[in-house]
């Protein structure tokens, strides 16, 4: 971390009072000193290229210019990556390392038109293509000889994948599929990079062969001529328009008018259509949903990157900003001294650690289950699906709440685009919808939980094993409450189990009163999402605690203390947020709640001196933070003024609209 000459003195003092070694924590976060060094080298290399430098801040560009800049940056970045690949023979892992961390969030800016190529097109080729198909397509895609995207969502359907309308009908006479959009609502709508960037794409379409529909399957379709980039005959493609955020991603629409593709362009690792039109079924129809699961798993880590950025910006700014009066006759305090401010920010820091550990746990599970799937073992797929759905939902919604809280914590200056908090919010809130809308994701997990509830105890998979214990109602309120992290984890498991039990009972009651199962489910769905959230919170809390306990065995005593305080803070924060549920489902009392509140306030006091050290340890460079408020040197006011001077309106003292409109209007001549 470079230490510029002039650092704001308040920020400097914060750093001096930090009780642990910031670099030690950075190493822990990166996975070891070696990894920190590698990351820093990658960052140096990228920033030396100057790809991140904008002549004019992109906020002042038009929609079209923003797209053109995003394409330019993506090309420069990949030129560099190609060079790297040649020099160091680096593979996909290197791409992930480069773009998967906070560095990725800086280079991609307000989204990139090539993200979908890497995040979904290539993974779909890898996960859904046969060995021959992979050999043919992956190297072309990896070298960017072709650019692809993932076209699933349609104007009429996003969530309900089974309801997609695009058809792929096999014509045995020519051994081709006919891609067609029978209605306006069948138009593909949303895919990133689809509008003007991709020349190929994976299309999810209803497969028809021998007169029968077999559900949705993936097909590779060429969209544009490889030389002229003109859309091919029968392809209607364009951009869907300006959005709340992600305006660099070039989201598009796509319609087909009887477009023919060779039979070999159906990705056939799982299901197949033979030359004579015979359909061969996959071991599970849900394997087609594999890419979505991959991205959901990746998103949990991605959300940590955004939360870490937001909380770094808001915490440093809170150390620099002085406002109001805390004690009479004393100077205005740093806003970080207000306990309400600590309450807003420290939970953000703790959340980064909690989700980081869960993301890593989930990534390992994903890799293990994927390896099992390769051998035909599908046993753990439902558990992984249930966990990735609820973690995707809670990570994205917590991240959106965290970024918004950080923005509000910066007062008016947080509202400035120069703070980088609004753009970050735009990126994060999009993730609440894409890759499975959050309510829908929670209901998928609830479906699994209800099933698990009906299973016998011995057969329960590890992440729901606690249900067996909690199902024994005699235990529910028998144990006295203790104000300890263990008790809070146990309390959350009881909340989850209690809510699932109530949902199951409600559904049964409603069915007995004559409702169909589906209607009873729908009537109970508000409670089902709450049960699912509680299950997820129990999982996050228990993983955060267990993984941190393992981790602290290898760190110095001062750092151990701080990391354990973060676990406590996270646990007590959520216990207080869910105090009604704890009263309902655990043995907690009013007195215990007072104790919890005191414990929480004590933790804020203990963590306050380390607030800046903790965000410094995320080691996010200024180029990545891209914020006038959050830079390492704390020169927030100077930077705000410098950014204001970049406004095109400040290029001239009088704007032409004065002479054209204001003056005539003021003089009654307009
Ligand atoms: C220069 C740059 C370079 C960059 C390089 C960067 C490199 C690295 C940097 C990267 C950082 C990251 C950045 C990210 C950026 C992202 C960008 C944006 C991406 C956004 C993409 C999208 O937005 S893309 C569309 C996603 N669109 C959905 O997400 C639809 C949701 N909708 C469903 O997903 C289904 O529709 C839904 C509801 C399950 C029902 O499906 P359904 O109706 O068929 O199923 P049912 O409900 O009937 O369930 C029937 C049984 O299937 C089971 N099951 C269901 N799904 C299953 C599954 N997946 N696996 C196993 N089992 C599954 C279920 O558990 C039941 O099991 P059981 O019967 O045993 O109970
Ligand atoms: C920025 C962005 C990028 C995207 N990129 C891509 C891409 O690259 N490729 C791609 O294919 N798609 C992409 N999408 C589309 C995205 O995957 C869908 O928007 C998402 O899956 C939600 O579907 P929907 O828009 O149809 O919402 P809807 O399903 O219409 O949701 C609307 C409301 O209905 C509720 N609802 C729907 N079904 C249920 C249910 N069963 N039970 C209870 N409530 C329900 C939802 O909770 C929500 O409140 C992108 C979307 C965004 C915003």
Topology:
Elements: H1 9-16, H2 22-30, H3 33-49, H4 63-88, H5 92-100, H6 102-108, H7 115-128, H8 131-142, E1 150-151, E2 167-171, E3 176-180, E4 188-189, E5 200-209, E6 212-222, E7 235-239, E8 252-256, E9 259-262, E10 272-273, E11 279-280, H9 290-320, H10 339-374, H11 381-409, H12 421-431, H13 438-454, H14 466-471, H15 485-512, H16 517-523, H17 525-551, H18 557-577, H19 579-585, H20 590-607, H21 611-616, H22 622-625, H23 636-645, H24 656-666
Structure description:
This protein has 24 helices and 11 strands. The protein is an alpha+beta fold and 670 residues long. The strands form 3 sheets. Strands 1, 2, 3, 5, 6 and 9 form a 6-stranded mixed beta sheet that branches. Helix 11 runs antiparallel to helix 12 (421-431). The longest helix has 36 residues, at 339-374. The protein is globular, with a radius of gyration of 27 Å. Bound molecules: ligand FFI and flavin-adenine dinucleotide.
